[in-house]
Specification:
binds S-adenosylmethionine; binds iron/sulfur cluster; nine-stranded mixed β-sheet; alpha/beta; 19 strands
């Protein structure tokens, strides 16, 4: 089957597997806070000294709304919100620290949003120092943040670099003027060029760009122009996200008509246009929306089979405990998941009352843990060994895998299952064959399409 035909066939709603089970299948009902806290304490004691832990800090504020945006964010121009919010985050972290029997070893720290660079460099300094002073920093710690090219100043980059941040990802989305105007995100190329140059001069090890395909008025030509321009800046990593159109959840997306969006066929062509240009420019397809230059640690880890995946996406650090701080942040204790309240005020109120801000979660069954392991092996290594494959095998799975083998997406042989180079674009679809919970779902509209 031609690659284009496969793109069409596998362009169905499937999760991105930053967790298993995926959120719609969390057993929030039997979930209890005490069990969640017990699981955090348990995994901390089992793995902190050997592997360290990961921290995610959600900073939700943005000065203006990019109408396409599906992130959990809050628009405000009032910077007075910074002080109260950072106090809440530090207080929430102190609450977690009470669970721990020793200082946490911070192996990974990521600040996402919203726009972390909405906060002033002074406040980011207070926040990060406030969090780090209670822990030990791992010698190979990876600190990263998301920056908006329009408001990331040299002072932000300098301050965060001094605090130990060595990776940054910048939101680009698209450089076409008409697309930018439609999504209310005017962002000149010069701004991207400036923040990239300044980050490199300061010594940041890895610079990543976020691009989105499927935005209103995008065409193959505009995507080609965008990609050709950004490639001249040689970002170490690229995320190429499929636009998620969810106007019932994000009314900002009603700022344009559905008819302004590319058709499914066009969207697949946009993806193919971008992907081809990335590969021609020497980027490696990491799988699930990510590309990296061969020298980047993400590509090196993929080759070495040491990639890991958690709520922050692909990562090179394999910890078992991820503590998510801030409104809407998600935590992963290996034995379970939990999410914080999404509204800033509700989150702050809970924390300042000395309560936990968690409002829903999931406890992993043995079967969940097994399936999660299989899915992560495929997503991160592109492989599943024979022993795991045999354990997972059912008649239906065998038939589905045989079809994918005929299509050249996977190879099945003595060492087990392997996703072929040609099959990398369909890695989400391969993972979904192992997802027992999704198979029980009659209506699959909960997830964005694979392409
Ligand atoms: C928190 S933002 C990045 C940091 C900063 N706020 C900025 O915009 O530059 C995270 C990323 O999510 C992606 N994103 C947001 N809304 C999306 C949507 N509707 N569909 C697909 N990707 C989306 C964008 O690529 C965006 O850069
Ligand atoms: S894309 Fe970034 S800056 Fe724009 S609204 Fe979303 S989080 Fe805020």
């Amino acid at each position: 089957m031609q690659f284009e035909e496969l793109l069409k066939k596998y362009d169905v709603p499937v999760p991105r597997y930053t967790s298993y089970p995926t959120m719609p299948f969390w057993n929030t009902e039997p979930f209890t806070l005490n069990e969640w806290l017990f699981s955090v304490r348990k995994i901390f004691e089992e793995t902190n000294s050997a592997k360290g832990i990961s921290l995610y800090i959600h900073l939700p504020f943005c000065e203006s709304l990019c109408t396409y945006c599906a992130c959990n964010m809050r628009v405000t121009k009032n910077h007075k919100v910074e002080g109260k919010y950072l106090q809440a985050v530090i207080q929430e972290w102190q609450h977690y620290l009470e669970l721990f029997n020793e200082p946490p070893v911070i192996r990974e720290l990521h600040m996402g949003g919203g726009t972390p660079t909405f906060f002033s460099p002074e406040n980011l300094n207070k926040l990060i120092n406030g969090v780090l002073k209670f822990g030990k920093i791992h010698p190979q710690a990876e600190f990263s943040f998301e920056g908006h090219p329009n408001n990331t100043t040299k002072e932000h980059l300098q301050q965060l670099y001094e605090l130990g941040f060595n990776r940054v990802s910048f939101g680009v989305q698209d450089l076409d003027r008409r697309v930018q105007k439609t999504i209310n995100r005017i962002q000149p190329f010069e701004n991207l060029e400036r923040v990239t140059r300044q980050s490199r001069e300061l010594g940041y090890q890895s610079i990543s760009y976020d691009l989105v395909y499927g935005l209103p008025f995008q065409a193959c030509e505009t995507v080609e122009n965008t990609v050709k321009q950004i490639i001249t800046l040689k970002p170490d990593r690229l995320s190429f996200y499929s636009y998620a159109h969810v106007p019932w959840l994000r009314p900002g997306q009603r700022g344009y008509e559905d008819s302004d969006l590319p058709s499914d066929v066009m969207k697949r062509s946009l993806y193919e246009t971008g992907r081809k240009l990335f590969l021609n420019a020497g980027y490696i397809d990491i799988g699930m929306d990510h590309f990296a230059l061969p020298h980047d640690e993400l590509a090196v880890a993929q080759q070495a089979g040491t990639l890991h995946r958690n709520f922050m996406g692909y990562t090179t650090t394999a910890t078992n405990l991820l503590v998510g701080l801030g409104a809407s942040a998600i935590s992963d204790s290996y034995y379970g998941y939990a999410q914080n309240l999404k509204k800033v005020e509700e989150y702050e109120e809970k924390v300042f009352n000395g309560e936990w801000a968690v409002f829903k979660g999931h406890h992993q069954s043995k079967e969940d843990l097994f399936i999660k392991h299989c899915i992560l092996e495929i997503a991160c290594k592109g492989k599943l060994n024979t022993a795991l494959l045999e354990q997972a095998m059912t008649e239906t799975l065998f038939q589905e895998l045989s079809v994918m083998q005929m299509e050249g997406i996977i190879a099945l042989s003595e060492p087990g299952l392997e996703v072929t180079e040609h099959g990398r674009a369909f890695i989400r679809n391969v993972c979904s064959l192992f997802d027992k919970r999704m198979k029980t779902l009659p209506e699959k509209k909960l997830f964005s399409k694979a392409i």
